[in-house]
Amino acid sequence: MNTPIKFDARLTKNQSLVLNTLLEADKPLTAYSILDALRDRGLKAPLQVYRAISKLLEIGVIHRLDSLNAFVPCQLDSSDCNIRKTVIFAICLECGKAQEVSDSLTVDAIQNISRNTNFRLENSVTEIRGLCANC
To answer: What are the two backbone dihedrals, phi and then psi, of residue 75, each rounded to the nearest 5 degrees?
Structure first.
């Protein structure tokens, strides 16, 4: 299970359910796998999950892994993720676990590329794939 997330927003019931489901998962979850896990807790429609995910992404307590079309809780200080707007994930090809990595050199390089090309960076999620230490 991941460490608790620090945030300043009040969450709705659905947002809390989605966040807790992600915190309890051992790998990234798709919106439909979240919905399946929460059907007995009152979430019946995909829109309920997508609305909760949207808010959780907005406040920076979860991240979307584009290549997997899945979501993970922020594993670092979520306020730091909102400030730097750049996150890095190491994704295991064998077990599917995704580990958020803090690497200031890579973050600085991405932000420098953005500045040098006069490109306004909204966010950047870098995904690296391989085998984790356990696999």
So the answer is: -100, -10
More confidently predicted of 82 and 129? 129
In angstroms, the CA 43 to CA 14 distance is 8
CA triplet 47, 92, 121: central angle to 5 degrees? 60
> With 60 as the cut, is the pLDDT of residue 82 above it?
no
Q: Is the model's pTM score more than 0.70?
A: yes
Reduce the DSSP state of residue 29 to 3 states and report it: strand
pLDDT at 77 over 60: yes
Burial of 121 (0-12, 13-18, 19+ CB in 10 A): middle
Helix (H, G, I), strand (E, B) or coil at 91: strand
Domain count, the chain: 1
For residue 17, the number of C-alpha atoms closer than 13 Å in the C-beta half-sphere is: 21
* CA–CA separation, 100 and 125 (whole Å): 10
Where residue 43 sits, what CATH number does that domain have?
1.10.10.10
On the 0-12 / 13-18 / 19+ scale of CB atoms within 10 A, 76 is middle
